[in-house]
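[SOLVED] Predicted holo structure with flavin mononucleotide

Edit: marking solved, answer below. Original request kept for reference. I posted the sequence and ligand SMILES and asked for the 3D complex as structure tokens.
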Amino acid sequence: MNIHFLHGTETGNSEMLCEDLEADLGAGFECSISSLADIKPDELVKDTLYIFVVSTYGSGDVPATAQAFSGALETRPDLSPVRFAIFGLGDMVFAETFAQGSKTLMEQLIASGAAMVGERGVHDASGGDMPEDVALPWFRDILEKLPETAT
Ligand SMILES: Cc1cc2nc3c(=O)[nH]c(=O)nc-3n(C[C@H](O)[C@H](O)[C@H](O)COP(=O)(O)O)c2cc1C
């Protein structure tokens, strides 16, 4: 099974979280990590599970490194062979736009036909937990759901 982590970030938290999740993977997975700035939606392939880890900035916007990718999704490329899960980093200090960047990206991926595995995970920077303490159980749950979502 190929797992490809894709981070969208401004200050590096999302990238570090991808590294934590990768370190938790057991044997049997081929794994890679990329910035969303370095990939285009039409480069996503079948037979890989994409794990998006994306923060939120501005007025609920996707972070800088995810903006081109998100913009390209507005053309609604056909992503029907693609499977993904998504985890959002945010801060409830910004209650009205909490983790909105990951929600926007999730909705764009679904509108392009991609299949989502599990629920969107979120981390609140004001919540007292470390991102990995929330994301690791979420990620393990996603991996458990994989067989039942196989195409
Ligand atoms: C200037 C600024 C604006 C932010 N805007 C939002 C926001 O609108 N909604 C939200 O949930 N979090 C917001 N955040 C919180 C970040 O998403 C959060 O700190 C996240 O962990 C950053 O991850 P990153 O280092 O991967 O970019 C903002 C943070 C900063 C510094």
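OP edit: The chain has one domain: 2-144. Thanks to everyone who chimed in.
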